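subagent[fold] <- orchestrator: predict structure for attached chain, return tokens only, no commentary.
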Amino acid sequence: MLWPEMWLRATGQNLFEKSAFYRTTPDYLLYLIMPAGHWLANDGDGPMDSLGGLGYSFAPDAVTFHFYGWRNKNPYARWLARHMSGWPHANIERLWQAILWADHSKEEKPLNDLPPVKFFSSNGVAILRSGWDLSAKSGDIVAAFYCRPFESHTHYNAGDFMIWRGLDELVCRGGYYMGTENTYHHNFFIRTVAHNCALIYDPNEPVPFYGKFMMANDGGQLRGDPACYPNSYRLLMGNNPFFYRGEIRTFVDDPQFTYLFADVTPAYNATKAVRVARAFLWLKPSTFVICDWATSTKPQFAKRWLLHSANKPSVAGAEKVVTGTSDAGILESTDSHFVTLQRGASKLSLQTPLPEHAVIRRIGGEGFGFWVDGKNWEPPATTREFMEGKRKDFEAAEATKRFWRIEIEPTEQSAEAVFLNVLDATAKDGKTPPVAALLRREKAAGVTLKRGDASHEALFYPDGRVRVDGKTVGQSLEPLKPYVVPERLGSPGKP
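subagent[fold] -> orchestrator:
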């Protein structure tokens, strides 16, 4: 916040008004506030809680919101600044700064006056909330969907999402930030495989070209942390498509549902991908239906749909141990379409209508929490020794070693794979999940959902439209193209 303020004082140019990024920053920070003063660790590198997702370390403090209340004339920032007392990251002892910017004569508005759903187009993030209950016992559903432009610290995760119920993160990401100069960071933590995205695995795809530590082929996206910061690179080289990773092309918020459609094809190498797109539908307040289209240049390239969990998921079906043990290893089931995840006082059910014939693979536990390309990429001992002095961070990092992920892979080879998954978040002892039945109409795929007397129907079209309970939203869109790697960037190690 201080850089654009200094720029304003030096040049007279007000980026808080002219720049969409700085203009929307106060609202963006407000939407990241979670129950009990936690903050949604939303993207890229950064510490999280003991099992991922929420943190205090990078959380904005009361002074920050006093500033934005003053400079951006934001009444919600003013209200929050005055109601943060007792939060671990309030930092209200910085009174000299608060005195500069706090203006209690101006209007204040509580957060629950804000709409619970917001799409921040300038940075490619949508935050979906069922409410603004910030108490420690909150049962609100919060989801975040990401298709960010490429920036420094951005991971290879265009199309990623996370889901919470209260403070219980039910869909998380893998790993924990432990510095950048190590093989763990470059082969697992920032890669697509550590996020809730889709993979297309070409065994001969060159490893992405971002420095000496990157070795593993995870089947994921191309963009990540380069050797240079892209903001500087843009100034030197102009607008370069190397940094374009696709975008959220449709956003619709209806009283009954929220719908996003993201085409993330440009995040994948054209040698293996023809199209990768994701439709994300939230049936308020607790059900998510996600449809993915993954088309490859060759039918033998495996497609995998990923979902990460802090705790070991339960699979309703027979399993075989591929390697390791049933407590920590790689386990596969071919007769199950139902998975349950639990954390704290909450649970998440996962049903998979498509592919109709699929392998449900669980990977995780000690020795498998960072598994990529046939190897567990453990954090370096030097980093772990450094973190031992920071007890909370060390405990968090140790916990991530026992993380799990679900991989869903079609058993039949085909150039095109369609993934259709239904997720439902409730209290641990709450209502049973809806019964999902596959629905097909020409090129569209969808589900009917029934729970008690309530029923819904959702039908997804590959062009980006969706039909929800008889109402069609979105528009027919031309698909984006995959990324063609320039010859000068075609080998590892070249920036």
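orchestrator: received. Logging for downstream: The CA atoms of residues 123 and 148 lie 6 Å apart. Residues 115-495 form a domain with the Beta-galactosidase; Chain A, domain 5 fold (CATH 2.70.98.70).
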